Amino acid sequence: MLPKLLGARLVLQGAVTLLASDADRSGRRALHELGAVVDALHSVSMVGLAIVSSRRRREGTEQALVAAGFAAGEALVVRSLS
Predict the structure, then answer these.
(1) pTM for the full model?
(2) Which domain of life does the UniProt lineage start with (predicted)?
(3) What is the C-alpha separation between 34 and 13, in angstroms, rounded?
(4) Cα–Cα–Cα angle for 10, 13, 18, rounded to 5 degrees
(5) CA triple 38-71-48, angle to 5 deg
(6) In the chain, where the domains are located
(7) pLDDT tens for residues 27-80?
(8) In sequence order, what are the residues at sequence separation of 6 or more whose Cβ sits closer than 8 angstroms to the Cβ of residue 3?
């Protein structure tokens, strides 16, 4: 259940970012900054899950790595819009 919910969040976040692609440069930058923060927070929360739950350790680790990758990608986009 958790991976499906988190996958849905990523799809929704991507859709919002895509729909806002017509915004001015500063608006796009702010949106990508927000995306980077959300992804980074998600990554940190999944590290926490991996630490406290031996049953969900693998899932938490995988989700943390994916979210960290998305956060890094968003940060690169923000940098290119600076």
Answers:
(1) 0.83
(2) Bacteria
(3) 10
(4) 120
(5) 65
(6) 2-80
(7) 888 989 999 999 999 999 999 999 999 999 999 999 999 999 999 999 999 999
(8) 59, 63
* DSSP letter string, 21-76: GGS-HHHHHHHHHHHHHHHHHHHHHHHHHHHH-STTHHHHHHHHHHHHHHHHHHHH
Token digits for 8?
A: 């849905």
Q: In angstroms, how far is the first alpha carbon of the chain from the final one? A: 38
Using alpha carbons only, what angle is made at residue 32 by residues 8 and 64, rounded to the nearest 5 degrees? 50
| Contact assessment for residue 39 and residue 68, using Cβ atoms and an 8 Å cutoff | yes
DSSP-assigned letter for residue 16 = H
What is the pLDDT, as a whole number, of residue 2? 67
Q: What is the DSSP letter of 23?
A: S
